[in-house]
């Protein structure tokens, strides 16, 4: 997806690692996405109160509130985000993460990842949102 097809889709990147957040922001912007970033779960919740991203890329390990706790809070407040959040982690094989993924049906993007994985997931979210809108 490039250019006009991605131009109206906003992606929220929630990761406390500033270099990784910047890489994702630059790469996704080049693909035509509008990208907003947050370094913490609390900042992301504040952004969600005023922004309406189509997709969220969420790090599991965040300061003060984990990405997993953020997900539960965000979905409870904004249920339309269900199916539009992917968690990113370098330790996706841990029991805690695997059990959480199984309970919440949330895609896992293992770090390190390549941008093709991110773009494929965003294409999936766009298609899923389109199907959901048609059914409404």
Explain the overall architecture.
The chain is of the alpha/beta class and 136 residues long. It has one domain: 3-Layer(aba) Sandwich (Rossmann fold). It has five helices and five strands, in the order βαβαβαβαβα. The protein has a five-stranded parallel sheet with strand order 2-1-3-4-5, sandwiched between helices. Helix 3 links the parallel strand 3 and strand 4. The N terminus is likely disordered.
Give a brief description.
With 136 residues, this protein is an alpha/beta fold. The chain has helices at residues 18-30, 41-50, 67-77, 95-104, 115-135, and strands at residues 10-14, 34-38, 55-59, 85-89, 108-110.
Topology:
Layout: E1 10-14, H1 18-30, E2 34-38, H2 41-50, E3 55-59, H3 67-77, E4 85-89, H4 95-104, E5 108-110, H5 115-135
Parallel strand pairs: 1-2, 1-3, 3-4, 4-5
Overall average pLDDT:
89
Number of structural units classed as domains: 1
Shape: globular
Distance between the termini: 25 Å
Would you identify the CATH architecture?
3-Layer(aba) Sandwich
Features:
5 helices, 48% helix, Rossmann fold, five-stranded parallel sheet, alpha/beta, 136 residues
């Amino acid at each position: 997806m490039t250019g006009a097809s991605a131009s109206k889709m906003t992606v929220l990147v929630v990761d406390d690692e500033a270099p990784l957040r910047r890489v994702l922001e630059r790469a996704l912007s080049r693909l035509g996405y509008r990208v907003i970033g947050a370094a913490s779960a609390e900042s992301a919740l504040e952004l969600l109160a005023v922004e309406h991203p189509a997709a969220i890329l969420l790090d599991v390990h965040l300061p003060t509130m984990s990405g997993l706790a953020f997900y539960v809070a965000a979905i409870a407040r904004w249920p339309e985000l269900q199916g539009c959040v992917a968690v990113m982690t370098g330790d996706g094989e841990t029991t805690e993460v695997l059990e959480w993924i199984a309970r919440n049906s949330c895609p896992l993007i293992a770090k390190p990842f390549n941008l093709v994985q991110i773009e494929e997931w965003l294409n999936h979210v766009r298609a899923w949102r389109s199907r959901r809108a048609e059914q409404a």
